[in-house]
Each structure stands twice: as structure tokens, then as C-alpha cells.
Amino acid sequence: MERRDFLVGAGLLAIAPTASAAAPGLDWGAVRREFRLDPALTNLGLFYLASNPREVRDAVEEFQRRLDANSHDLMPEEAQKVAEALGQYVGGAADDIAFVPNTTMGLSIVYGGLKLRPDQELLLSDQDHAWHQQAARLAAGRVGAKVRVGTLYESSAKATEDEIATRLRNSITPQTRAVGITWVQSSTGLRMPVRACASVVAEANRGRKSEDRCLLVVDGVHGLAAVDDDAARLGADVFVAGTHKWLFGPRGTGMVWVNPEVNGEIAPMLPSLSDRSTTALLGPGGFHAFEQYFAVAAAVRFHQRLGRPQVAARIAELSARFAAGIAEIPGAVVHTPTSLSAGLVCFDVPGSTGPELVQRLADKNIQITTAAYRIPYARIGTSILNTPEEIDRTVREISALAR
Fold first, then answer.
1. What is the pLDDT of residues 173-214, one digit of tens each?
2. Considering the domain boundaries, does residue 314 fall inside one?
3. Residue 264: count of CB within 10 angstroms of its CB
């Protein structure tokens, strides 16, 4: 089925009444109606654990029905379809995909399986998620290696690609075995320039032996399906992401993509259900909620039919609208840089801490979140399920609370 046919059939395409009118576009209201949302709640935290569209819910129920009918039929062909769907979506191949339950598990498997010596180190950023840092520390501790945490910019609001690349270049040493970064930081909303970081790592790798090669590991959970780019073509060696956030995938599903050039540098930590490829062996075996895993392909199809450029543009439009509104509040500070942003916006307003603002808005049926870091900034995430009216209402309420 062609993308346009799907959109028309599902009622998601707004078609101009005359040839001289605006070009056809997505009916975002119709898209929203594919989800079971609380109509009384303005939810700007939909990225946390995503709602599933009808297509994904139907797929979960269908696979559950089939497994109930015959639990011995684990449908390996469906697992292959998921690998192919994810591989295509990130610009890679099915054989370069391993299935994991979430980002934390994926990062733990990657760092834990990395061939790491006691004289080597793992280099991370102080704005990487605490569980990203913990995954690296646990892995390093097992072999007596070190973890070094650096700072890649002075101010997130003023950060530039050049500053980040320069600081990273100055931080890598001959002992650095891996650099861990986050594509879109949940602490600041900053979208890391992964390609620039990859160029720096490639430069550092010149002349190194394979066992000394520095790998670039990307926590991509807040970039996957929120940024219009191929994760496998950013220049990273490893990309890890849950699919149950911006991709609207079933809960408890995630992926690891490994550059085939380096898949020999990461050894499996656990027995695997799949031996279809070297990378697939990284995925943990045992029994899973297979109906959830198999339905990931439906989430990919849903996004592809909407169009990743259209989805990313809508997310960016709404986040920019929110950031501009907050910036007009006297004393407010937006910590997410306009030039390096995606779907998350972190901010401060006078008169309320991040947690206080979350509670005060909750009293008005508006859901926002805080960044659970050293400084708990208030934070919103714009989804294609949100509306400009919700953004404007939230800005007005925040402005009133800041007076």
C-alpha cells in the first residue's frame, strides 16, 4: 500500500478542496484519534512511555491470539520482519539489529560485552543519563578499567557544534576505548551533533589497532522517530534505543544497532534466542512478551506511512512554539539551544522549581515532567499528538504562575 493510500484510507490526510488551495497535508487531529488519550489532560510528557496507535494495539492483540492458540508457534519469521523493519528505519540492515527490552538493558549489554582491558577507559558526558553512566561503570568495574565523565559544553543554551567537537577532541586519550553520548539529552533537550562527534572519534582512531579502537556509543532513545535522520548513518559504531517512546512501539521493546565493522569488538553476555547474525546474538534469550516484540513492525509502518520528515517537522514546530512562548516570560530561561534541539525543551521560570511547576500544572490537568538530574529543570516533550492550542494554553498557565 502506498503511503498516500494508507493516509486517505485511515482518514489521516487533509486534502485541499481546490487545486489552487494548499497542498495536501496530514490531519493531525485524525492522527491523534488513533490513540487512546485522556481527553481531559494536556499531556506534554507523552514521550515517557508512549501511547500506542490503533494499528499497534491491533497487532499486539493479533499476535497474542495466535500465541494463545498455539504457544509453540513463536513465529521466527515475524522476528525477522521486525529486524528488517527496524533496520530499514534506521538506514541499516536486519542483521545489524539485536532486540533488547529497553535502552538501559541495551547499553548494559554493549558496555558489558565490549572487549575492554584494565588499562583502558570509557569516556562519557556529565549530561548522559545516570543509567547510561552506571552501565559503563559496572562494565569497567568488572575488568578494573576506568570511567571518565567530562563536560562537552559550558552552557547547554549556548552550546555549539564546534564547542562540543573541540571539547571531545581534547578529552579522548590513547586509552579511551569507547565514547558514550546521548543523541537528544533528556537533561537539557540538547540534540548532540553525532556526526561531528563521529568525525572526532574517527580522527582519534587513525593508526589504532582494532583492540585499541575507540567506539562511539549513542543512547538514541529520544532521537529515534523524533529526528529525521538515519541512526545507522550518523557515523556511530553502536546505536541503542527503546522503541516504546517516540516510535510509539509496544512497551518493553528496544533495539541495538551495531556497525558491522566493529561487531567483533562486542561479545554476547547472555544466551540468545537468535543466531541469525553476530549482532543478533547480543539480544537476551529466554521467554519474552513476544506479542509486544512482533508488533514493533506495526509501529515502524505507522511512522513510515505518516512520513518521518512530516513527523519530525511537526515535533520541531511545536517545541519551537513552546520555547518561544517561554522565552517571553520575564526571568524565564530556556536551557535547550534552538540550533541543537528536537522534541524536548528544558526551562526554568521564576517562582517555581521544576518539581513545584510539575505539581502546579498537574492541578490544572497539564502534564509536564522534570529532568531527573543534578538540576531538575522543568521539561516538556512535544509529540505529534499534541496541538498548538495545548502548547499555547500551557505557556499561558506557566506565565500566570511566574508572575
1. 999 999 999 999 999 999 999 999 999 999 999 999 999 999
2. no
3. 11
